[in-house]
Amino acid sequence: MDDQTPKSHDEAARDILRGNDRGGFTVPTAGLYPYQWNWDSVFAAMGFATFDRDRAWRELETLFEAQWPDGMVPHIVFRADEPSYFPGPSVWQADKGPLPSSGISQPPVAATVIARLAAQDPDRAARLFDPLDRWHRWWHAARDPDGTGVIAITHPWESGRDNLPDWDRPGDAVDVSGVGTYTRRDTSLVDTDQRPKKKDYDRYLALVQFGVDRGWDYARIAAETPFFVADPGITAILLRAERDLRALAEAFGRDPVPIDARIARLEAGHERLWNPDAGAYVSRNMRTGERAPWATSASFLPLFAGVTARKAELLGTLDRFSRSVRYLVPSFDPDSELFDPLRYWRGPAWAIVNWMIADGLRQCGEDAWAARIRSDTAKLIGESGFAEYFGPLGAEPCGGGSFSWTAAIWLAWGLGTINEGTV
Ligand code: GLC
Asked: What is the rounded CA–CA span in Å between residue 244 and residue 405?
């Protein structure tokens, strides 16, 4: 190609994935996130699958190489020594797995993406069946030991939506007196106004220390942690993943009965997260029973999980969101006084969440809403590039640039063909 020819967005997206490839795993973006992140990798695989199928499977396989003997798949795999990143492996002291890693997990989107790609390469999908099954069982045992049907997080980072206002009040119970002094790296790379505040960061580090002090024993953590918050995001993503795992079980002649039991439990559990006043599924502090009073982007994910009992109310809430922002879907209720349009998970829109929400809407026959979210995502990226996330009022590109999962969603969702009007 002539150097003067402008690159298409498709080509730019492929270049980002290739450029962030560190040999079998992809970093979310160079600089800010120099390791392998769990759900970032899974979405990257979805993007790679559009032009390099082998590379897509490698991404998924390398993630599961880090699986702990207890089934946990860590949220960060520290594959290289990057002293520029904080908190790194020496802070986590989580040495229970085959590779250095963090001690918590992240949203289990892998089964959904593997089921999507399985027809291309059934043998490689089949080899990942047992690791997936073990990971899903870990979620139930470690994060819902009482079988309530809702899945809790033990650290805000486990939700993948790090500084959501939902974690503020439950976080008040975290003792930060032992945190000491430390130097953050994220605020030297990205505008401070777009990152979590120091108070949040102290809690993040105190909760890491809490896990270290308990040898990352999940039963002890679940029994003793002050921070155990049921998350509609993780609960819905796991339910969807269980359904996709069940489809894989059918395809590979494996026993679906234990998966059916887990599906039934999660389906029933969803009602515990319904907040009629918010018209939304919300998080719930499992220590106090308190439910969050507002909707977030995760409130819509039960539709992605096939839970449609509250569809009408959820559409009402989505409609309300759409009147307050220009681009869907803000990560946090835009009518709340805590809405902060450029600060990370307190307002901005994220392409990966949009993809999941739109997939759910399409599944339950809401094609017009799905198309609106898809088209908003195409506009955000089209206008502002492959940023980590975007301002929902003015499409501002926020956080890191040349971001793997934003590029991956562009490709996997075929956003370059948006004018064709398909979802
Ligand atoms: C931030 C996000 C998290 C993501 C990570 C790497 O921590 O909140 O969801 O996985 O960055 O992109």
From this structure: 21
Beta bridge partner(s), residue 76: 37
pTM equals: 0.97
| pLDDT value of position 420 | 46
Q: Which residue out of 26, 40, 42, 409 has the highest number of ligand 1 atoms within 8 Å of its CB and is therefore the one to mutate? A: 40
Tell me the CA–centroid distance for residue 301 and ligand 1, in Å.
Answer: 18
DSSP per-residue letters across 155-199: SGGGGT-TT-GGGHHHHTTS--TT------SHHHHS-GGGS--HH
Which atom of ligand 1 is nearest the CA belonging to 161? Answer: 8
Enzyme catalytic residues: 162, 388
Nearest atom (ligand 1) to Cα of 33: 6
CATH code for the domain defined by 6-417: 1.50.10.10
Task: Write out pLDDT tens, residues 367-400.
Answer: 999 999 999 999 999 999 999 999 999 999 999 9
Query: Which residue has the CA at smallest separation from atom 12 of ligand 1?
Result: 28
pLDDT at 3 over 70: no
Domain residue spans of the chain: 6-417
300 by Cβ neighbours in 10 Å (0-12 / 13-18 / 19+) ranks as: buried
- Statement: residue 5 has pLDDT above 80: no
Place of tokens 């796991």: 238
